[in-house]
Amino acid sequence: MNAQPPANAAPASQPPSLMLRRFRGFLPVVIDVETGGFEPATDALLQIAAVLIDIDANGRLCPGERHSYHVRPFEGGRLDPASMLVNKIDPWHPLRPAIDEADALQRIFREVRSHVRRHGCRRAVLVGHNAAFDLAFINATVKRAAVKRNPFHPFSCFDTATLGGAALGQTVLAKASVVAGLEWDKSRAHSASYDAERTAELFCVICNELSACYARADERARSLGWQTTPQPLEADLEGEDDVRDAPALQDGGDEPMPTPGPGADAAIP
Predict the structure, then answer these.
(1) pLDDT tens digits, 130-153
(2) Which candidate, 42, 240, 57, places its Cα nearest to that of 144?
(3) pTM confidence score
(4) Long-range contacts: 8-12, Cβ < 8 Å, 24+?
(5) Which neighbouring-strand residues pair with 125?
(6) Does 129 qualify as catalytic in the annotation?
């Protein structure tokens, strides 16, 4: 396990409404997985890492705590030789501190649920580089291992490959990181923990660069009377570790938007 609070993490007393407002009730959490292949239903999960995202008093995002685990392949899990050559993982190395996939997900989910409560959000949304891949493996493992209380939205995600292409003209994580002014160590790539850390930094850099655009959009939303600070779901925030499998926001996270009219500056209930 690796859990490290960075020096630039936001203070614990940070008002939760900032993160709640920034992504309309969602909490972004970076996830990276290393696997035995490309098929979530049949190929083994070998590593998983999470980086929690924090926000400062000025609304700027920064990477928060890191959590990473080596995962023991599930019984019958496929290990594609081509994939193993890329990630260079030896699943059966005697010194590899691997745990069962259900245990790994439960530990990650526990930290994510705690962070969701801390920021007063509705639920987490997965951030990844080619995020659909990571989310597919998370969902497949949840189903296979019967893991309960998954805090992540089942299909919505934030993809830094898309963000990197739009903001930086680069879709490869290494190249997007370099042109964004971030460090890249090729020798550490294809490790879940390293890739998650770089993805988190890239996500925060791009979001922070878009702060002026977000501010204009938020002002416009307010002028239209749209409720831009959703209320947390009470069921998500009650009790110890009690962010349940709450229903997603309507249509994958979009409330119906009203037509501007005479009363458009009133908040939507």
Answers:
(1) 999 999 999 999 999 999 999 999
(2) 42
(3) 0.82
(4) 8/62, 8/63, 9/54, 9/62, 9/63, 9/64, 9/65, 10/54, 10/55, 10/56, 10/62, 10/64, 12/118
(5) 28
(6) no
